[in-house]
Amino acid sequence: MKKFLIALVLLAAAVAIGWQIQGKFRRADEPLKLYGNVDIRGVDLGFRVAGKLLEVLKDEGDAVKTGEVLARLDRQPYEHELARAEAELAAAEADARMKKSGFRSEEIEQARAVLEESRVVAKDAERAHQRLAGLVGGGGTSQQNLESAEALLDEAKQRVKVSEAKLKLLEAGFRAEEIAAAAAKVAQAQAARASAALRLEDTELKAPSDGVVLTRALEPGAIVPAGATAFALSLEKPVWVRAYVHERELGRVPPGTKVLITTDGRPDKPFHGKVGFVSPRAEFTPKSVETPELRTALVYRLRVVVEDSDGSLRQGMPVTVSLDPTPP
Question: What is the spatial order of strands in the sheet that 204-206 belongs to?
């Protein structure tokens, strides 16, 4: 009896081990199928500047290409702003050129003429003073007249000094600090002009990528604040599939793995894709994903990049992901 029980236990253990080995090989031979949903990126578009909406060129459901104009604001206020900025830039550049080249030769010649004139006046005042100084001792003139002549002589000498300083200043030109300040004003005016040109360009709202207009939120004539949503755009690329894989199958889908994506509507015409990302963190299977396993099973999220989407894939569409049998 005891020998029979021992034999029965050994037989049961052998059957269990065989069943496990068979299960492992069976799971390895089974084709990998993952279940997920299409994930299409979208973007809300708005003007970077405020203004009056002049025209709307696209409507809901329209396909758009990269760079295509979707709507326009009234350009006139920004055209005036750009014209004012260009005029201020021209004035700053002219002032910088003047500072760099120095004073005109005519101004320098005029200063020299004034200096010569002041020197002549000073010489005449000096002769008059000397003449009165010789007469005051013999009673030919009064002390008061001599003092007046001295005052005129001092004034004439000071005028000579002022004229000499002015001529020297004109010949030296502007200081380096003044030239640098003029150049800085030119740079400031250039930045203001570039900003005005950019604001004028921003009166046109353009599509950042190929896609389809989902929502048109504004109508012509509306006063649009900066940043207000005018369109909601569904991007044509990239198109992703968000799928989930169990830990025991994780090694079969490393990044770069080629896969096939099928939908219920076209099971015989699969899309081609490539695994682009595998989450390093486990999570519970989302309730929106249909799998034959328990929903509480821990899985790893992966992202499949669809390489040949033709526009038929829609946001949230359920799909099946399988390994591509085509040799790489």
Answer: 204-206, 69-73, 51-56, 223-224
Structure tokens at 199: 């604001």
Highest average pLDDT, of 23-32, 97-106, 257-266, 304-313, comes from 257-266
Other CB atoms within a 10 A radius of the CB of residue 177 amount to 8
Q: Two tokens at 176?
A: 């380096």
Q: Return the structure tokens found at 301.
A: 């999220």
CA distances from 18 to 11, 30, 196, 248 (A): 10, 18, 78, 19
- Residue 215 or 251, more confident: 215
Nearest to 135 by CA among 70, 198, 127, 61: 127
Residues 81-134: tens digit of each pLDDT:
999 999 999 999 999 988 877 777 677 778 788 878 888 888 888 887 777 777
Cα 186 from Cα 130, distance rounded (Å): 57
Main-chain dihedrals φ then ψ at residue 250, nearest 5 degrees: -65, -35
